[in-house]
Input
Amino acid sequence: MIIFRQREPLEQKLQQLQREGRRIGFVPTMGALHQGHMRLIETSLRHTDVTVCSIFVNPAQFNDPKDFEKYPLTPENDIRQLIAAGTNILFLPEVREIYPEAKPYSPDYPLGQLGQVLEGKYRPGHFHGVCMVMDRLLHMVRPHDLFMGQKDYQQCMVVKKLINLLQLPVNLNIVPTCRENSGLAMSSRNMLLSDLDKANATGLYQALLHIKENSWKAPLSALCEQAKAKISAAGFDKTDYVEVCDADTLAPLGDDADPELPKVALAAAFIGGVRLIDNLLL
Ligand code: AMP
Output
């Protein structure tokens, strides 16, 4: 695996590979890698010729500075896992490599309602930061295929919209969520949980499963309320939202929603001071 810390040599190498006709796959991450990330890497390795992973904890997408400060960093372990999987290229930039300007150019990304609901509502500025970093990374790597996890469902929809807005020739591949045996969605933030909180955190998945299994026989609003009660009974301190939305637009749905419409149930809640998110397609 070749490790690039600077943008220019990375771009030169990738341009050479593009000229040779290689198909480039890209897996952007914030590190503290786990099996969920590795599933994206494996999917890229299967479908492309060259797999590029980036590890960059993007300050622009943290609306809470404390969350940024305590974000887990495990670079040696990450590099070991990436090499073992057969990753071809790792881009491991410093902040100044991505944001060289003293005041980074911050274009408007017109995401519409997609940027306002769910995470957009509870983490103001988060998706703008995601768009800023993805705009820059996609222009540096210029991949044919981009691999992202369904775990961050709204982020996938936002990046899909960004690709359209920027008119980039990138294929977005959404990889299903990788879970612990308990059902808990794997996440770098799980490292910050005590053993007890980690065991209880499966309540978030159980609550979404309750919605999925009963969505055909009870009103969605009642199911969301029941799910919130389950999350708090499991030991979560606070729930930001539990909602059922249109799977394409993420518009929130009420009890009169068309039964045929593809839907997704999404939730965000805090346990032991750590904010977790999860979702299930219904
Ligand atoms: P992160 O490092 O948390 O920014 O995640 C980097 C990429 O890995 C994103 O596309 C995530 O959606 C994806 N990812 C994170 N956790 C999982 C998981 N449990 N299963 C599948 N993909 C995941």
About this structure: The radius of gyration is 19 Å.
